[in-house]
Every structure is written in structure tokens, then in C-alpha cells.
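INFO batch 0412 | record 1 of 1 | parsing
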Amino acid sequence: MLSNLYIENIAVIEKTSIDFAKGLNVLTGETGAGKSIVIDSINAVLGNRTSRDLIRNGAQSAFVSAEFDEPSEKALKILKEQGYETDDGTVMIQREIGLNGKGKCRINGRPATVGTLKAVGAYLINIHGQHESYELMSPERHVTYIDKLGNLETALSDYQAAYKEYQSLQADLNKADFDEAERNRKMDLLQYQVKELEEADLYIGEYEALREQRTLIENKEKIAAALNETRQYLNGSDETDGALQQLENACSALESITDVMSDCETVYQRIQSAVYELEDCFSEVSGLAENADADVGSLEEIEDRIDLIQRLGRKYGSTIEEMLSFLENARKELDYLERYEENREQLRQDCRKARQKAEQLAKALSEKRRKISEEFSARVKEEMTFLDMPNVQLVVSREDCELNHYGCDNIELLISANAGEEPKPVAKIASGGELSRMMLAIKTVLAGTDEIDTLIFDEVDTGISGSAAQKVGLKLKEVSESRQVLCVTHLAQIAALGDSHFKIQKNVSDGKTYTHVNRLDHEGRRKELARIIGGVEITRATLDYAEEMLKGVQ
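INFO prediction complete | emitting C-alpha cells
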């Protein structure tokens, strides 16, 4: 559950810390006091879109922190998948919004992305506001209520995977069905490209080897002169001794005294080793000289080959690796076009099988939905009857449709709020108060199908009063027995039922507006309920009535 919410520099809230409790938490306050700011702040730490306009005037950044105790197993699983550990069973989510457009997110002190906040937040809090009631006006959303009640997410996921595969194959088939003339033009081009690259007979490393050969040819005389000069220094000439002969003479001189001066043995061995090393060097230099004299091809032939590789590179890839890859792909595409009819028929078969699989899964899903729909309509109708809509009728209308992302069902909720009237689409007849109660009824029915510990109802009392308001409050109280509920309300009947009551109050000091959130004690609640009931003037009668309301729920 949400145990603490800290808000800093968001709109008219400079700083406030709210400690929420289990059960039903109600938030009240005058219009414009800042109740929506609390919801906006919670939305921010849940990874929802924010605006720099939220930042308090004069501040450079805004900050929100939310602490959750004992999150659900699903939330912990998502956290672990994202690389976050929760050793003490507490999750701390923080988000900073900068005036410069930059922001920072953290989970348990470690950096996070907005996307991660959203993924985790989806399993921590469920916010129901007025906009969500109006989702009932969109029939395409109705199927999701049925799927949630029936725990059909896995069946839907299996169908969607099959449907995606069918769509992919169908797209490939559509691409394959081009006319014969286009196919022939494509084959002619591919045949030319394959022939040109095959005749070039390229191999990896050839371009570098050619450039090296060109450098050798261009510097052939210089190389030969240097190598021959090196050989002469090592091996000498007719007139002079080389380094090898000089070292051999030194070895002979030392060897003649090693029997009478043992200390000479070590230096003799070292010079002898140098002789062997120089002999190897001489042999290697001689080999290099012979290679330099060998015919490595004419410069013109090498230049022509380099030019060919560069010309092909402008068409097929900047490196020989890319050109050979192009050749391989061109061969495959040419082979496919040459076996066009055979390939197309195989693709048709694969596409037909994929569609059959998707249809089977869609029909199985549809049958499950049909059964769940009966339970859904009965349970939601029961809840709406309790919420002061005794004559309500609720029908789940289902029609077959073409395969789509959700299957083969067009599902729409039809409602009649008055006796004797035929159920009609929600969008055509439901009032604001009816929408609020209907969504609360749906939320109540679906409450047991998820692991979300905290539900937030933002002005669920829109358009209702009297006994209907009392019933809505009782229903919220019932839901709060199994999970934490936060409710922003304007009605005393609902506020009186809260286990914890927070007042959001705005005041002006030194020309600046400040909003504070305070938890009310019994006397504070009595005065707040009296304000809601009586408006500007709080009388003894309204205070007494408020006291009766509080005693009635104890």
C-alpha cells in the first residue's frame, strides 16, 4: 500500500508529506484547494506524462516521492525483472521534474527510467478518475472488462501471437503477388548483379593485398638497394669483411684463450650466439631480396583490379565483405523469384494455416467470453442495484466480426436505468452520475482479479447525492476492507465513512499561495463535514449533524 507521499514545489504545494493508512482514506477541501495536485503528483511517480507547468512558480524543479509497504508479488516480480531489489519489503519511487525539461527518476535510490516507473507503477496503484468513467463511452474498451474478470489475459496473449503471425504472412503474400512483368524486370536486374559480382571473383582481404603490392612495385628499386646494402654489411664484399666475418674472427680470438682464462668462456658464448642470430638475419634479408626481385604483377594490372573493386563498391557495398553479402542475398532473391510459383503456393499454405490457428484461438476465446459475460452482467447489475439504481438492466452485447487485435468479438455494454426501457449503448443514455456508479460497480467486481493494493477514486461522486452518495460511500468502505482506498470527494456522506480523513486547504501569505494537507482528528473532521454540509456558514445544527454522521459509522 501507499504509506507516504512527499510533494515539493508542485503547483501551489510548496512542501507537504502525507502518511496514508490502511482502509479508506478520504481527501476533502474546497474547490481549487489543490486536491487534483495530489492526484497529479501520484501520477508523476507512476511514470505518467507530466508538464513543466506543474512546477511551482519561482522554483527550478519539482519533486515527488512515494513509499510503498508490502507491495504485491506481481509488483515485486516486475521490480526484480527490472533489476531492483527490495530487501525490507519497501519500495521508494522518486521523480524530479526540471524547469529545463530534464528530470530524474529513482527506485530505492537507484536510477530508473520513466518507462520503468510506469511498468512498476501499474502494479502498485490503480487510479480511477472521471476520465476513466468516460471510457465506458468507448465500446472498444468493454471487452477488456470481460477478459479481466475471466482471467483471459493468457488466452488473449496466445491469440494475439497467432494473429500477429498471420498478419506477417499475409503481408509477405501481398508483397509476393506482383505482376509477371515486374517479376521479370527484377530477375533481369538480379541476374546482371549476380553475374557481375561472380565474374569479379572477389575474396576478403584482396583489396588490402593489392594496395600493398602496388606500394611494393612503386618502391621496388629503393627496396632492392636497401636489402642488398644490408646483405653487404652483414656478409661483406671482396674488399671488406662484413659484420659476420668480424664476429667470427672475434670468436676465434677468444676461443684461443678460453683454456687458459676461464672467465672468457661466458663472453665467448654470447658472441657465438650473436653470430648465429646474424646468420639468421642474413638468411631472412636474402629471402626478402629474392621476393622483391620476383614478378608480383604489373602495376597496370593491379591498378585495374583496384579500380574494379572500387567501382563495384559504389554499387554493392563499401567493403568486399558487404559486396559478398550483397551477392549472397541477390542469389537467394533470384532463386526465390525463379521458384516463384512454388514459393508463393507454400506461402499461401502457411498463411492459410496461420489464419486457421488464429480463428480457432479467437473462437475459443469468444466462447469463454460468452460464459464470462453472463457472470459479469449479473454481478455488475447487483452492484449497481446496491448503488441506488434498482431498475437497472445491463446486457453484454456480442457480435461476430473480422479478426482483429482482440479476437472475433464486437462487445458492447448496453444499459437501461429505468423500468420498461430497452437497454441501449452506454454512450447514448448514461448520465455522469450513472457512469460514475457503473464504473465503481465494475471496479468492485474486478477488484478480486488483480493484485493491486491501492485503489484511488478521484471524484467518483460526480453527479450523485442523497442515498446514492451514501451507497457509494458504503461500497468504497467495503472495497477498502481488502485493499487500501484513497478517495477524493465533495460529499459528506462519503467523507464520514473514511478511516483516515485529510483536508486539503489553501491560504495566501505574503502574496503567495500555499496548499497544505493535514490529517484531521475527530474535531477537525466534525468541522470539515459541517463545512461540506453547510457551506460558508457553519451552524450548531450542521456541527451536530456532522457529529451524528461520524457516530453513525463508528
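INFO post-check: Residues 186-337 form one domain.
INFO record closed
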